[in-house]
Amino acid sequence: MSERIERDFFARDAEEQKAFLEQTWCDNCMEANLGMGEPVEYELNETIFIEGKCNKCGEVIVTELTDEDF
Description:
Low-confidence stretches: none
Helix content: 10-25%
Oligomer: single chain
Number of strands: 6
Number of domains: 1
Order of helices and strands: EHEEEEE
Structural class: mainly beta
Strand content: 35-45%
Shape: globular
Mean pLDDT: 93
């Protein structure tokens, strides 16, 4: 089993942070681009994730980064 490796979301440039925080999908609200707060970035099984809370309902949102996000 792989270990979760913490990364520094705030080391990303401001423009990139803004895009990741605004371009979201909430499974609970079933809506796009509601925004996320309290972002935490980590790597698991060689995949990078950004996790935070939906700005509308507060449920956890997880964004999986793909090669096209870099």
